[in-house]
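Action item from last week, closing it out:
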Amino acid sequence: MLRAAAIFLALASSLIAREFDPRRDVFAFSNDTVMNYTVTHDGRLHIGGKKGKSDRPTHCCFLFTRSAMQFWKFARFEPKQPRLTDEEYRTRIRTLFRISPWSERSGRIAFPGYADLWSFSREHEKLLRADLGSWLLTYLRVGNWRTMNPIMRPMQRHFAEQLFAKVSAGEVRAMYLAKLPHMNHVVLVYHAERLPGGGMRFHVYDANYAGDWKRLDYVPGSNLFDFEKCFYWPGGELRAFPVYDRPLH
């Protein structure tokens, strides 16, 4: 009986979905900005001239976020299986990236020979970058028009509550952070917690920071979100919109 119980518990534990990990479930390479950003000592954002030529991709925060979401939802890694050729991996990557991120499907595309997206992308960066897609088309997405609307703060609370419910249920969600003209960015939300006073804190994968996480808070007093300070943003309040959760978003 004890042996049977032990086997049952081992099988059950293997079926429990683990939490999204920014050190395993993201790309081992990062997105870059085209311009030089500096946050002054008094918290002001200064945007300088263009950076010199870089080997890192630019303008690709939408593409990184969408692709990480697709890997999390529709792929599985099989580290104990033999590795495939580059051409076989390329075929699987292209099949994966053709799946709409908002769709639901039970089957997953296998990527044998690797434990997670981090280890796979570290060795196959060129393959992945070649099929991420066009950054220009992400600027022409239908859902981007929402950033031009007047601020509707009650909708921000609705988005926050909806986001909290989805992420608390184990989903990952893409959010478009906007405060024009200086903030136009997309992150992947994977953790949510309540704060005293009715606020909410979210942990996000930011494609500009490989292997790290950033803080995104919902502030009930202002009915806006607050994104932490980083090299391209001085920190402070902005709007957030769900993306890749339906065709027109």
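Closing note: Residues 4-16 have pLDDT under 50 and may be disordered.
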